[in-house]
Design brief:
The protein has 306 residues and is mainly α. The chain has 2 domains: 16-209, Alpha-lytic protease prodomain-like (Up-down Bundle), CATH 1.20.1510.10; 219-289, 2-Layer Sandwich (Alpha-Beta Plaits), CATH 3.30.70. It has 8 helices and 3 strands, in the order αααααααββαβ. A 3-stranded mixed β-sheet has the order 1-2-3, covered by helices on one side. A hairpin with a 5-residue loop joins strand 1 and strand 2 (248-256). Helix 3 (84-112) packs antiparallel against helix 6. The protein starts with 15 loop residues before the first helix and ends in a 17-residue tail after the last strand.
């Protein structure tokens, strides 16, 4: 018998209008910096543009994923579209990692063969980018608290603001001191920052997509707790996985000490749910068994037929 309790999670609504405005602002500065970078010959402007483009990308994805994730479940999509935000975060981080390597490659070749850069354009466009990013950060700050996607976008924007400050100082050094190597050096720093920022999101989203046990969950400890409940002999064939950031599922077989009736099992189930909810597990399916002859491994490596 399977038993599942539906919990209504309060999912933070993301303000669509603010997000849309932020997308427009960032798309504008991306285009401006890209053109400016090509005209002035500055790779740090181009890498800042790529950085800004990554924001536009992540914001568009967050916007779409957030709309999707709120759709109701149907017979064909029994979980609704809850995974869409995780897939979005994954795609976004992969894009960033690829772009970061491209910037590194370009910057290193610039250090080997320096190119003259026009400082004025760099200074003004970087300043524009600082203003746009500061506004964007203010726009979506409240939504970033409890949403991985918006948080990743928020971190991008904040990081962009800092890199634009660096690019602006680079522009000042280029204009007044003709220090051209500062341009590719800044690009390398931006690329390393991008890699560092994306790696964590890449790893977390991949773990959720692969249905790995969430890092904060100790299966043996959980089983031990459930096995303390009166009437429970052991918990085995345990699967724990995440649908998205907020929802953790558990399914397992529970071996009972006696051949009890369903209402008695409901009591055990209720106690198990209380134990498991302390570990933030909010969807539970337990299969009761009495004197079933199978391996009682906590983790089952092959499917069992009953």
């Amino acid at each position: 018998m399977s038993h599942n309790h539906e919990h209504h999670h309060h999912h933070p609504e993301v303000k669509g209008k603010r997000l849309f405005l932020t997308i427009l602002l960032n798309a504008g500065i991306t285009v401006a910096e890209l053109i400016g970078g090509i005209i002035s010959g500055s790779i740090s402007l181009i890498s800042d543009a790529i950085h800004n483009f990554s924001d536009v990308l992540s914001l568009i994805i967050s916007y779409a994923a957030n709309k999707l994730a709120r759709r109701d479940a149907t017979e064909r999509q029994t979980f609704g579209y809850k995974r869409s935000e995780i897939i979005a975060a994954f795609l976004n981080s992969v894009t960033l990692i690829v772009l970061a390597f491209y910037i590194l490659y370009e910057a290193v070749s610039r250090i080997i063969e320096p190119v003259e850069v026009s400082g004025d354009l760099v200074i003004w466009l970087a300043l524009g980018s600082i203003v746009v990013n500061a506004l964007s950060v203010l726009f979506i700050k409240s939504d970033a608290k409890d949403n991985m996607n918006i948080k990743s976008a928020y971190l991008h924007l904040f990081g962009d603001m800092l890199t634009s400050v660096a690019v602006m100082f680079g522009g000042i050094l280029i204009k007044y001191f003709h220090v051209y190597w500062v341009d590719p050096l800044l690009s390398i720093l931006i690329a390393v920052y991008l890699l560092n920022m994306s790696w964590d999101i890449f790893k977390t989203s991949l773990q959720i997509m692969m249905q790995f046990t969430p890092p904060n969950i100790d299966i043996n400890a959980i089983a031990h707790e459930v096995e303390k409940i009166e009437g429970v002999k052991n918990l085995h064939h345990i699967h724990v996985w995440q649908i998205n950031e907020h929802e953790i599922m558990l399914e397992a077989h529970v071996d009972l000490t006696e051949n009890i009736n369903i209402s008695s099992f409901e009591t055990i189930l209720h106690k198990a749910e209380q134990v498991l909810s302390k570990n933030k597990i909010n969807h539970i399916t337990l299969q009761p068994e009495y004197s079933v002859d199978d391996k009682k491994d906590k983790i089952s490596n092959h499917t069992h037929k009953h």
